[in-house]
Amino acid sequence: MFCEPLRGWRQVKVTDRRTKKDWAVAMKELAENHYPQADKIIVIMDNLNTHKKSSMYETFEPEKAKRLLGRLEFHYTPKHRSWLNMAEIEFGILSQQCLDRRIPDQPILKTEVRSWNEDRNNQMGKVDWQFRIKDTE
Fold this sequence. Notes:
Elements: E1 2-4, E2 9-11, H1 20-34, E3 41-45, H2 53-59, H3 62-71, E4 72-76, H4 86-97, H5 106-122
Parallel strand pairs: 3-4
Antiparallel strand pairs: 1-2
Helix pairs in contact: 1-2, 2-3
């Protein structure tokens, strides 16, 4: 899940698993397909064990990994708190609006998620997430 909340944009991708390679390919798609002109892309994410710079080097040739990583700036949500972040809110909305029924197979799941994603982006659905410093205490 990519989410740019102020723009009202998200991109959801269905994969078989959540491997290091899946993550690295998603980061490449983010940089090359969604933000090809950006010098720096700030990525805020959780601390999943696949979300490591080394995953890029395990997936791509060193030059490509270094070039991609030079454009990506990673910030991780704190490990010691269970903060509800914007991507989790988007997943909740996806679950309520699209995944609230049995979907028989992955091809249909991909079609349904793609359709939801397009509709939500066309509506420029924004995330109403508010953070207060006192909530961190």
